[in-house]
Specification:
Chain A: It is a multi-pass membrane protein. The complex is a heterodimer of chains A (about 400) and B (about 230). By secondary structure, chain A is α+β, with helices and mostly antiparallel strands. Helices cover about 50% and strands about 15% of the residues of chain A. Chain A has 13 helices and nine strands. Classes of the chains: A alpha+beta (about 400), B alpha/beta (about 230). The structure holds adenosine-5'-triphosphate and magnesium ion.
């Protein structure tokens, strides 16, 4: 502390000495800041996991453009499209290919395992260009009916077991009472609302998912000719499909729309956003309370400083020194406990919870700002001091 | 410059409107550089008020107060703050910082002159002064573990450590025993003789009156008689 104060402050660490003098108060303040930090971290962790999950739910595919029913917000909601949208799209100049994407949900029943809900994705086997790298290599093999590629990161699946799936060593299981054979695997993982996923051919899809037909895909994937720019292609497709109840977006836009829908429209997302604000508020209130108490307790000391010739900024410096110390001392245990909670959550939910540097920095800067704000509020009391009253 | 403090026709009022009362009436005085001047008079006569005017802790309302050649009437807040740094003030209550050790409290008096300055040199100067005042054993104590007289001596060290040109003291020896009081007064006299430090002190102690270069009497806010 000595060399820090000499080097950085050029003076005694008065703020630190004052904080240290009241150990219980200091401990309570640090615990409060740590708690607020943890709250914010956990909320941001949930938000980030939700976003990651949305993004990975698109990862089995790729395309330049996605055409979806007008009321679609995610991959799995919304109505279905008419298959003619595929042909109308392909007919446009600059469009290289278009294919239907079918999305449905099935239950995977296993003895001694809770029922698992799988998203079923289906592409026509010849539409390999729209398959993500992990899927593309197996797509030919699933043209055989009731063959599938299994998401090895699905809940309650041993990834090592799933990784063994190959045409030579197929894995047999049942979804919705129908026997299916996995001949390959990929990695996507569970989300909010599903436990895992499965990729099949369009023909297998209509046998697995009740009340769906080849005539009603969930989305249409479109690829452009090389050199065809995205914006004019989007405009052209929108024009050509103006009579259809569809929305035409770039693939990236569809993903981002889904992410922001999840963060703002889904109740869970809004609750989490409110939780971040709540955490910040808790932090500001706690630090304000501690600093205001400390300022009130030291008004006479600050008046003495003024009488001796110290400036107002010097006294503000003491208060901000305390705010900074509380921010740093509270952040570290907050970071540590949040990391532990992430590990627990990841273990319990199989969702992608994890600490990352960017988020840590954001929360640290937020903590600093919140503590400085609290310090500025607490410093308002200084106006009442009058060094003439000391004699 | 041979006079450190000059007051001419100073009046001062407290309160507003109905409650407005005059506390100081047409006070004029001069304090020679390097002297020990005592300000005496009954309770409520305005001694502390005069000290706060000289100490730049209150703004001068009427008349002229020249401190070390600078007119304080109409001085800006910045100017007042700068002048305060050239003073050493000893309050009637010690006003030590409870979270700082005796040594750290004295360093507060030194560091007001800004950053820079070797920390070891500062500590040596503060320790030396505390030793002279008989507190060598106690420099690492917090004020809570010091007696009233010891606290007052730490406060005196805090006022003197930065080599002020003028020392303003309001009954600095009230909490001290006879021996310590004389030690402090002799120290102030020596500083006046050797370094030209001027002391303006409020005290009721007759022995100190005898050691003073000048004794000023105040009664109901008015100067009554000066003895040299
Ligand atoms: N802040 C103030 N507001 C209003 N009146 C004040 C204030 N300070 C002092 N006074 C009045 O001014 C007069 C002089 O007070 P001052 O404190 O200067 O007396 P003093 O000579 O120091 O007395 P003591 O020996 O008791 O310390 C008193 O009548 C006092 O009531
Ligand atoms: Mg007084």
């Amino acid at each position: 502390m000595n060399w820090i104060s000499r080097g950085l402050l050029g003076r005694l660490p008065v703020g630190w000495l004052q904080l240290r003098h009241h150990r219980m108060r200091l401990a309570a303040a640090v615990a409060g800041v740590a708690f607020a930090n943890m709250l914010v971290f956990v909320q941001l962790g949930i938000l980030s996991a939700m976003n990651d999950v949305v993004r990975t739910s698109y990862s089995p595919f790729r395309a330049d453009i996605v055409i979806s029913p007008y009321n679609t917000n995610t991959l799995t909601d919304g109505a279905t499209l008419a298959r003619r949208v595929v042909y109308q799209s392909v007919a446009q100049p600059g469009v290289a290919a278009a294919a239907p994407l079918y999305v449905g949900q099935v239950a995977w029943e296993r003895p001694n395992v809770p029922a698992t809900s799988l998203i079923v994705y289906a592409l026509p086997p010849e539409s390999r260009r729209f398959a993500g790298p992990a899927i593309a290599e197996h797509l030919d093999a699933v043209s055989v009916p009731m063959r599938a590629i299994l998401d090895g990161l699905s809940r309650d699946v041993d990834p090592a077991w799933a990784a063994r799936a190959s045409p030579d060593t197929p894995l047999e299981f049942e979804v919705d009472g129908k026997a299916i054979t996995a001949i390959g695997s990929y990695s996507m993982g569970a989300g909010f609302g599903w436990d895992g996923s499965l990729v099949v051919s369009d023909l297998t899809f209509i046998r697995l998912v009740r009340q769906r037909s080849m005539g009603t895909p969930s989305h249409v994937l479109v690829d452009l000719e090389p050199g065809m720019a995205l914006a004019p292609a989007l405009a052209q497709l929108r024009g050509a499909l103006s009579m259809e109840p569809v929305k035409v977006r770039s693939f990236a836009q569809a993903v981002e729309d889904n992410v922001s829908f999840q963060a703002t429209e889904v109740p869970m997302g809004s609750i989490v956003g409110a939780g971040v604000l709540l955490g910040l508020l808790v932090g500001v209130v706690i630090v304000y309370q501690v600093l205001a108490t400390d300022v009130a307790a030291h008004l006479r000391d600050y008046a003495t400083f003024k009488a001796i010739g110290y400036s107002h900024p010097y006294i503000l410096g003491v208060i901000f020194e305390q705010a900074l110390i509380l921010a740093v001392l509270g952040f570290l245990p907050g970071l540590a406990s949040a990391s532990a909670i992430y590990a627990l959550l990841a273990h319990a939910t199989d969702l992608p919870f994890g600490m990352d540097v960017g988020r840590s920095l954001t929360v640290f800067v937020g903590t600093l700002l919140a503590c400085m704000l609290s310090g500025a509020l607490a410093a308002r009391r200084l106006r009442t001091i009058d060094p003439a009253e000391l004699f | 410059m041979t006079t450190s403090i000059v007051m001419q026709g100073v009046n001062h009022w407290f309160g507003d409107g109905e409650a407005r009362r005059q506390a100081i009436f047409d006070v004029s005085l001069e304090v020679t550089r390097g002297s020990l001047t005592v300000l005496a008079g009954p309770s409520g006569c305005g001694k502390t008020t005069l000290l706060t005017l000289v100490g730049c802790l209150r703004s001068v309302q009427d008349g002229s107060v020249r401190l070390l050649g600078t007119e304080l009437h109409g001085a800006s807040a910045m100017k007042q703050q700068a002048m305060r740094r050239r003073l050493g003030v000893i309050f009637q209550a010690h006003n030590l910082h409870e979270s700082l050790t005796a040594l750290q409290n004295v360093l507060v008096g030194l560091q007001v002159h800004g950053r820079g300055g070797d920390a070891d040199v500062q500590e040596a100067a503060a320790t030396h002064l505390l030793n002279i005042l008989g507190l060598g054993e106690r420099i690492t104590y917090l004020p809570a573990r010091l007696s009233g007289g010891e606290k007052q001596r730490v406060a005196i060290a805090r006022a003197l450590v930065s080599n002020p040109a003028v020392v303003l003291a309001d009954e600095p020896t009230a909490a001290l025993d006879r021996h310590s009081s004389l030690l402090v007064v002799r120290m102030l006299k020596a500083l006046g003789r050797d370094r030209g430090v001027t002391t303006l002190m409020v005290t009721h102690d007759d022995r100190i009156h005898q050691l003073a270069d000048q004794v000023l009497f105040l009664r109901d806010g008015r100067m009554t008689a000066g003895a040299n």
